[in-house]
Amino acid sequence: LKNVPLFEDFSDEELEKLLVISKEKTYPKDAVIFQKGDLGNFFFLICSGRVKVIIETEEGKEGILSILYPTEFFGEMSLLDGEPRSATVVALEETRVIIIERNDFLILLYKHPELALKILKTLSLRLRKANRQIETLMFLDAPGKVARLLIDIAQERGKKINNEILIDLEFTRQELGNLIGVSRETTTRILKSFEEDGILSIERNQVIIKDVWELKRRI
Ligand code: CMP
């Protein structure tokens, strides 16, 4: 817990108390942690693994709102506004979480204003990201959506090697498409056309962006 930015201001004693009120749980890959519309009584902090936050249509189409990584949290919205879960959360791989019950979470917020501020800051960043997603969905064509998604992933987690940027995709083509509302087939076709144009190269789940400027021009 010491390495979790959310709790970095907590003393050892406070962290001990936190451990007493929290529970640990491990979900296997593909487990649904909770579903949109459920009553929400718990706050979740990711210790290891990865989850996707999704919405689904009645026909089973999936849209991915976000992918969350270790030290990130989810489930705070229902605890703060008392509404049902706003989205479904699914483990993308085996995922270990720490769970805090609603009342304990609210007491923590009252006792630790710095924790409340950190959560507010994260909510603000998530709203920014969501606005950017709205912008992408509203204004860009399919190649533009793929180009912008790659650039966003590169900025968040890319490794710069000389003039190239290497990104580990960590998702299937389907999930990549689900992040931008583009079908798997179209996403694959666009990636291939970018490859043919010399903008990037793809090896299994690694994408090497060779010409960032040209990729940006496609937006
Ligand atoms: P809650 O509504 O309780 O349950 C679903 C959770 O998914 C929500 O709380 C947030 O923690 C998380 N969530 C919902 N929308 C987004 C988003 N756009 N980006 C990141 N996380 C989100």
From TrEMBL:
Short name of one Pfam family: HTH_Crp_2
Residue ranges crossing the lipid bilayer per the database entry: none
Domain HTH crp-type residue range list: 140-213
SMART domains: cNMP, HTH_CRP
InterPro entries, alphabetized: cNMP-bd_CS, cNMP-bd_dom, cNMP-bd_dom_sf, Env_Response_Regulators, HTH_CRP, RmlC-like_jellyroll, WH-like_DNA-bd_sf, WH_DNA-bd_sf
GO molecular function list: cAMP binding; DNA binding; DNA-binding transcription factor activity
Signal peptide as annotated in the record: none
The protein, known as: cAMP receptor protein
Organism: Dictyoglomus turgidum (strain DSM 6724 / Z-1310)
